[in-house]
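Handout, section 4.2: multi-component inputs.
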Amino acid sequence: MLINNDTIVKDDDKRIRERSVDVSLPLSAEDRALLEDMLQYVKDSTVPELAEEKNLRPAVGISAIQVGVPKKMTAIVLKDGDGEIECQYALVNPKIVSNSLEKAYLANGEGCLSVDEDHDGYIYRSARVKVRGYDMIRDKNVEIRAEGYLAIVLQHELDHFKGILFYDHINNENPYYEDKEAIRIE
Ligand code: CO
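Output:
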């Protein structure tokens, strides 16, 4: 599937609010091809020349509903300052099995391929999550114990399965309400 900034489902399209369904395993050829394309999108999107050439917006994650397919699949790629991949997942039916009460938030707020406008404010999420699911890259069921940035990204992506966008979590009265107990991630 061609995935670029013009084909991504944006938040003015009601499909972005759809709930995603479980995917049957083993993966069908079609589901595998889609997840591979999603993973490639995320990898390429942070390489400036490729992003320019293919009309990609930089991202660390993408979920299938963002290309109009309401299935529980998400691809996540985190890179270090030199552009080397630090961690990557192509998850099918991932589920949060436990989460910390302690919260964390990104100091710069969150962004999303489906959201073109800026939405200022802090988004408080669990500081740590344990996620289980099938990972296409490793071809096995995995348990991810995440904290810090990865924990935030996982929760953002899994929210897409429920049709939830990051700005739904922003406190409208006081977008920069500061929870002193929460971990601030710079
Ligand atoms: Co998003």
